[in-house]
Automatic annotation (TrEMBL):
Gene3D superfamilies: 3.20.20.210. Belongs to the uroporphyrinogen decarboxylase family. GO terms for biological process: protoporphyrinogen IX biosynthetic process from glutamate. This is Uroporphyrinogen decarboxylase.
Amino acid sequence: MSQIAPLNDRFLRALKREPVDKTPVWIMRQAGRYLPEYRATRARAGDFLTLCKTPELACEVTLQPLDRFALDAAILFSDILTIPDAMGLGLHFSEGEGPQFARPIRTSADINRLAVPDPEVELRYVMDGVRTIRHALAGRVPLIGFAGSPWTLACYMVEGRGSRDFARVKALCWNEPELAHRLLDVIARSVAIYLAAQAAAGAQALMVFDTWGGLLPPMQFHEFSQRYLGQIALLLQSDPNTRDVPLIFFSKGANSHLETLADTGCTALGVDWTISLEEARRRVGHRVALQGNLDPAVLKASPDVIRAQVQATLRSFGNGPGHIFNLGHGVTPDIDPENVRVLVDAVHEFSGHPYA
Ligand code: 1CP
């Protein structure tokens, strides 16, 4: 893929902690059910997984929020559960039920059978999606590729579906830690190869979603989640093709680990809304950029409140480089798209540096 610089490179500059004219902004789940045009494309596709597996449709929904709002980055439309699906667990989404696996991990034999998928074979549709989107973007904004963290993928693979506490995988960690490590290791190698393939296909930054890191007590967080994030960073850094691709780690609910996460070798850390950016920044120092962290529920408030909270978030980060504005988690389906516009415009309005 060509290395032509994007026309709008605020996002990539902020990741490198370089000065920017305005704070870049993108929103987790920016392509999704709160947009009527997304719901229309999904209805045409029939179901969510077909949407993910059809590169032209995945490209269409990736671009939808960019056509509406002045966003500074695109994110590949896909899901974190593509890897376990490619490993043979049989992913399906039933209406209103969320993801489910036909063949969840239940025995040590299930773990021993797992193999690292070849991204250009079993996950070819994702790589074709990245290539199609990158071409369609034509340099407008950079494209983010992503994967789930090994821990978060293990949560779904062992439980077989979404859960509030993912008690099965937690029991596995306490009862058979060696088996849990064998599972996490094969997932981590799969994630690293998958992310490297996305970069080769044209993704200009990579993000790892550790949505369920916060379920673990501190010692176990280091042992079962952070250790594998570090392994992914190391594998990507040791590959000349991915060494310079910015890497964002987002461990939700794990703010007490920001310092050690900043030492894993990532470029930036996502921050949820339960800590101020001021404190997060003080704790990570100059080691990484920060991405976040407005409470997604603020989008249910009035435009005046949204604008005031955007300003408060920008002030909390303070002056200096290294901030990417985002929510502290994904935008929810009940949000009025007009409120997203208010947020995006306010980020640029209040962060404009007149002499930049
Ligand atoms: O249309 C629909 O009904 C499906 C809803 C949906 C969407 C829009 C799902 C099912 N996944 C997605 C897309 C998606 N998922 C993206 C696209 C890019 C974007 O615009 O941000 C991304 C990055 C994800 C990642 C993802 N999937 C995560 C990690 C991020 C997070 O939100 O914490 C997780 C945990 C999933 C699993 C998943 N996929 C879908 C659902 C409803 C869930 C959560 C299941 C649960 O635990 O309840």
